[in-house]
Amino acid sequence: MHVIHLSVECFPLAKVGGLADVVGALPRYQRKSGVDAWVVSPFYDKPFTKDRKFQLIHAGTFVQGGETLAYEVLKEKKDPLGFPLYLIRIPGKLDREEVYCYPDEAEQWIAFQHAFLRWVTDAGIIPDVVNCHDHHVGLIPFLMKHAVDFNQLADVKTLFTIHNGQYQGWMTWDKGALLPAFDTWKWGLLDWDGLINPFAAAVKCCDAFSTVSEGYLQELFVQANGLEGLFQTEAYKGVGIVNGIDDEYWNPELDNQISKTYKKSSVKSGKKSNKKAFCDAVGLNSNLPLLAFIGRFAQEKGADLLPAIISNIFSRLEDKICIFILGSGDEAVETTLKELQDQYPRRLATFIGYNEQLAHQVYASADLLLMPSRVEPCGLNQLYALKYGTIPIVHAVGGLKDTVIDLEEQGGYGFLFAAAEPEAAVESVARAVNTLTDASMLQKVRQKAMSLDFSWDKSANKYIQLYDQL
């Protein structure tokens, strides 16, 4: 079976969030099961592309609006990621340093999708399934079925994988002139509330859609940023498949990015050693429990709650805990966190930005991980934390609710709170600190966490089963 994954993020090429981690791992695990899985992404002017050699495998042109665009398809020569990686480069559009936040983003993603279809059509590449990831490539299912030049792809099956339904790629109808020529009788498939909505178009036109957890699939029926009715209508096409993690890359026994490797049997000494080195480096007291947050400072991640949560934790627990924050985004949150760090030296440290090695060190060092997300389609941080014996404290929403069982329940290994509010989060943090002061309990919970199997093997096979059904 030949499957092409189409995504604007792929780790380590370009990463902004969990989408990159999924696309950078899922195809590799599918190939282990015999699927000929490729990844196609835009070209970025990043260290990854500068440090590796690519071969030109195709070149061509297409017309977008009144502009003729030249494109190249480049293939990474040695396949070090465990799957073939193809990059589409378009001078001036798909050759930039960053993934998002350009004013012509709609034009970029239209060009990426058009170039992809032009390439596979001209090269006679007919995959069994095109797996489209999020709204950036949401026009593909429509264009494969209804664009004039690509009717040879009309019978190719499409799976639309939803990583985050809050962002839908809305664009005004004047952008319709940029699309490849299509059957204009089908314009309604692109429209939602008077705008072109690539996300909605994908849900309408795909052969199936998947969400990155079963819980998030159910949430979309009642909370989908205006598309609740659409999801209810198209429910028969929906499948929830929880994300996995790359347990070769996120593995404390093999991780060369942490101070000391460890396994389940040595988790106590391993975490103690990592915590000492980490806390010494960032100026925290390693003798206290360490609570961490890793993520974007965005409202959906509950980052705006962090200042109140931190203040209330220090007020309630006084000198019983230290906190480390790794992230960036909302400038007001960044500023307030810096002020709190000055207010609580040796108890709070922050790193504004994202650093992959630092993230590994945090997972290996922290005792607890906080995720107060308002929306979390799957969540990967809690899965990384569990692999490193770090106990998650999460808002019971989406994939967090699917993957974390509260310690008060049978077989539990984490802490859940019911509302995305500071008081609820602080109550769970206090409960965790009080519970895990029992050394034998802490050891038991850590070893339970590290025994859980959230690898991609199971999830990749569920995707393959879905492809087979299509």
UniProtKB/TrEMBL annotation:
<dbReference type="GO" id="GO:0009011">
    <property type="term" value="F:alpha-1,4-glucan glucosyltransferase (ADP-glucose donor) activity"/>
</dbReference>
<dbReference type="Pfam" id="PF00534">
    <property type="entry name" value="Glycos_transf_1"/>
</dbReference>
<dbReference type="GO" id="GO:0004373">
    <property type="term" value="F:alpha-1,4-glucan glucosyltransferase (UDP-glucose donor) activity"/>
</dbReference>
<feature type="binding site">
    <location>
        <position position="15"/>
    </location>
    <ligand>
        <name>ADP-alpha-D-glucose</name>
    </ligand>
</feature>
<feature type="domain" description="Glycosyl transferase family 1">
    <location>
        <begin position="282"/>
        <end position="434"/>
    </location>
</feature>
<comment type="pathway">
    <text>Glycan biosynthesis; glycogen biosynthesis.</text>
</comment>
<dbReference type="GO" id="GO:0005978">
    <property type="term" value="P:glycogen biosynthetic process"/>
</dbReference>
<comment type="function">
    <text>Synthesizes alpha-1,4-glucan chains using ADP-glucose.</text>
</comment>
<dbReference type="Pfam" id="PF08323">
    <property type="entry name" value="Glyco_transf_5"/>
</dbReference>
<dbReference type="InterPro" id="IPR001296">
    <property type="entry name" value="Glyco_trans_1"/>
</dbReference>
<feature type="domain" description="Starch synthase catalytic">
    <location>
        <begin position="2"/>
        <end position="232"/>
    </location>
</feature>
<keyword id="KW-0808">Transferase</keyword>
<protein>
    <recommendedName>
        <fullName>Glycogen synthase</fullName>
        <ecNumber>2.4.1.21</ecNumber>
    </recommendedName>
</protein>
<keyword id="KW-0328">Glycosyltransferase</keyword>
<dbReference type="InterPro" id="IPR013534">
    <property type="entry name" value="Starch_synth_cat_dom"/>
</dbReference>
<keyword id="KW-0320">Glycogen biosynthesis</keyword>
<comment type="similarity">
    <text>Belongs to the glycosyltransferase 1 family. Bacterial/plant glycogen synthase subfamily.</text>
</comment>
<dbReference type="InterPro" id="IPR011835">
    <property type="entry name" value="GS/SS"/>
</dbReference>
